């Protein structure tokens, strides 16, 4: 019975986090220290850095 209660609680927590994931992420990233840490961690990942950096610094023609 205790296992069932713990399993139900964990599943409920997972569903709530999944449903409100963007609201939770926006709330956490509103804190400047956490936002700065998230950027530093993501820039240390080669896959993210290789895809993001060329898009940031590419030249666009003026029309």
Topology at a glance:
Layout: H1 2-19, H2 21-29, H3 32-43, H4 46-56
User: What is the helix content?
Assistant: over 70%
Count of structural domains? 1
In terms of DSSP E residues, the strand content is under 5%
Q: What structural class results from the helix and strand content?
A: mainly alpha
End-to-end CA span: 69 Å
Note the run of SSEs as H and E.
HHHH
How many β-strand runs? 0
Low-confidence stretches: none
On the 0-100 scale, what is the average pLDDT?
Answer: 90
Radius of gyration: 19 Å
* General form: elongated
- The number of helical runs is 4
The biggest sheet, with number of strands, parallel, antiparallel or mixed sense and barrel status, is: none
Short overview:
The protein is mainly alpha-helical.
Characterization of this structure:
- This protein is mostly helical.
- It has one domain (2-55).
- Helices cover 79% and strands 0% of the residues.
- The protein contains 4 helices and no strands.
